[in-house]
Amino acid sequence: MNTEIIPAIDLRAGRVVRLAQGDYARQTTYPDDPAALAASYAAAGARWLHVVDLDGAHAGGLVNLTVIEALARTGLRVQAGGGVRVVADVHRLLDAGVERVVLGSVAIRDPARVARWLERHGGERFTIALDTRWIDDRWMLPSAGWTQAEGRTLDELAPWYAAHGARHLLCTDIERDGMLAGFNLALYRHLAKLAPGLAVQASGGVRSVDDIRAAQAAGARGVVLGRALLEGRFTLAEALAA
């Protein structure tokens, strides 16, 4: 089983940033130009790029669309989201050259609407993002850039989306995101049993190439790399070789 290595760029006010555990007050801003960084990932052998519009995720709507459009011109296949709420947002991203639209809050709040989009455009054009936090012995699904509590759980929605045409699922253990603490492998083993028809992308906490190998062994079909690449803990070439 091949595992796709997917470098990530999180955008806030057009800049490359990372948040710790999704906390907008705990932001690290990097000097890299987003398009130049993406081009360097393409030159190193990446095929995909994961892009999050953090401004859009928090406020709703596509705030950094111009930057996302520039990233889609770098030769990488882009999956992007953050703030997608209505079908017009889906069309704007697809028209900007995005290959897969990432759906987070709307996928949690309005599965029926997302199911219509899946039926219309096909499961390959979307990545369902069910980022999760362990609360009261359940994997809960906060929304709006992880700032608002919701009532639905991962165990409810992951198999639901598998049954309604989704093909790709991105799942982050929020407590590990940006913390360089390693993946929550138990979460990905759980997802492999819960929704075996979904190609799961692991995200949040990778610190070494050993974490990439471990995620693959746990059933992940993709690994999203953010802070570890930005801070040079290993190179993209080393990640691809893993």
UniProtKB/TrEMBL annotation:
Q: Respond yes or no to whether keyword Amino-acid biosynthesis is given for this record.
A: yes
Against SUPFAM superfamilies, the record matches this protein to:
Ribulose-phoshate binding barrel (SSF51366)
Metabolic or biological pathway, per its Swiss-Prot or TrEMBL entry:
Amino-acid biosynthesis; L-histidine biosynthesis; L-histidine from 5-phospho-alpha-D-ribose 1-diphosphate: step 4/9
Major subcellular site: cytoplasm
**Which UniProt keywords are listed?**
Amino-acid biosynthesis, Cytoplasm, Histidine biosynthesis, Isomerase
- One CC-aspect GO term: cytoplasm
Q: Does the keyword Lyase apply?
A: no
Q: Which InterPro entries match?
A: Aldolase_TIM, His_biosynth, HisA/PriA, HisA_bact_arch, Isoase_HisA-like, RibuloseP-bd_barrel
EC number(s): the record gives 5.3.1.16
Highest taxon of source: Bacteria
Q: Where is the active site?
A: D10 (proton acceptor), D131 (proton donor)
Q: Where in the cell is it found?
A: Cytoplasm
> Its Gene Ontology molecular function terms?
1-(5-phosphoribosyl)-5-[(5-phosphoribosylamino)methylideneamino]imidazole-4-carboxamide isomerase activity
Q: One biological process GO term for this chain?
A: L-tryptophan biosynthetic process
The catalysed reaction is: 1-(5-phospho-beta-D-ribosyl)-5-[(5-phospho-beta-D-ribosylamino)methylideneamino]imidazole-4-carboxamide = 5-[(5-phospho-1-deoxy-D-ribulos-1-ylimino)methylamino]-1-(5-phospho-beta-D-ribosyl)imidazole-4-carboxamide
Q: Which HAMAP family match?
A: HisA
The UniProt family comment states:
Belongs to the HisA/HisF family.
Q: What is this protein called?
A: 1-(5-phosphoribosyl)-5-[(5-phosphoribosylamino)methylideneamino] imidazole-4-carboxamide isomerase
Q: Could you read off the lineage of the organism from its UniProt record?
A: Bacteria, Pseudomonadati, Pseudomonadota, Gammaproteobacteria, Lysobacterales
